[in-house]
Design brief:
With about 210 residues, the chain is of the alpha/beta class. Helix content is about 35%, strand content about 15%. α2 (about 65-75) runs antiparallel to α9 (about 195-205) and α3 (about 95-105) packs parallel to α5. The protein binds NADP nicotinamide-adenine-dinucleotide phosphate. NADP nicotinamide-adenine-dinucleotide phosphate binds near residues 31, 53, 116, 120 and 178. NADP nicotinamide-adenine-dinucleotide phosphate binds near residues 31, 95, 127 and 179.
Length: about 210
Amino acid sequence: MPLPQNRKPDPLNIGLMGGTFDPIHIGHLVTAEEARQQFSLDYVIFIPAGLPPHKEKEEVSPAEHRCLMTTLAVMSNPSFIVSRVEVDKQEPSYTIDTIRHFSTCGAPGANLFFITGADAILEILTWKDYPELLQLCTFIAVSRPEYPLEKLGEATDLSPELISKIHLLEIPALAISSTFIRKRVALGKTIKYLTPEPVEQYIKKHGLYKK
Ligand code: NAP
């Protein structure tokens, strides 16, 4: 996926927004926009997970549905892009492989920021090749309001140098979650305004999340 030409003399700042996005919702979009502004990101690339390595036994909607919904959700924002790099893989997608992809051919020379939920980052010590991961990019751990952010420091055995590569970002709109949306659909409740309208229509058309 070629990025638009870099017209700046400095390296690009690229946000890589990793998640299952089952489905994508307003909280994710507000997060990406807030991160774009706070960290002066030139682009935010949404990367729906293909086969999430930590969720093999859980029921996750087919990657193609999650990827299409993500594309519909970001369509109107020229700074947002969707990458199929994980979706097109046949094997479980580890974040380190994705970051290596962007640092070598996807966006060589760019400063990379991996954006995802603080809960997911709490488990970072279990992630494949995590020390290299923290060398290759800066992490933005996003949380819901009143999330005990100190948990991150306590729960990880990371050195102060590595912990300095994790930034915390509180996003009130993350009170919405994908689980909440799936439950509402299963109960026949409205999800209007919780996700962009084209995503809402897609869920309806394909009968996703019905019991
Ligand atoms: P998850 O466990 O489903 O989500 C944990 C929490 O973070 C949930 O509350 C979730 O809310 C939120 N969240 C997830 N992605 C977010 C995002 N981009 N922005 C804001 N909140 C977000 O986590 P996941 O989605 O499966 O995994 C997150 C990322 O970490 C993925 O890119 C995954 O590939 C990566 N990961 C990598 C490894 C590895 O390399 N070994 C292991 C675990 C995770 P919602 O449900 O509302 O999104």
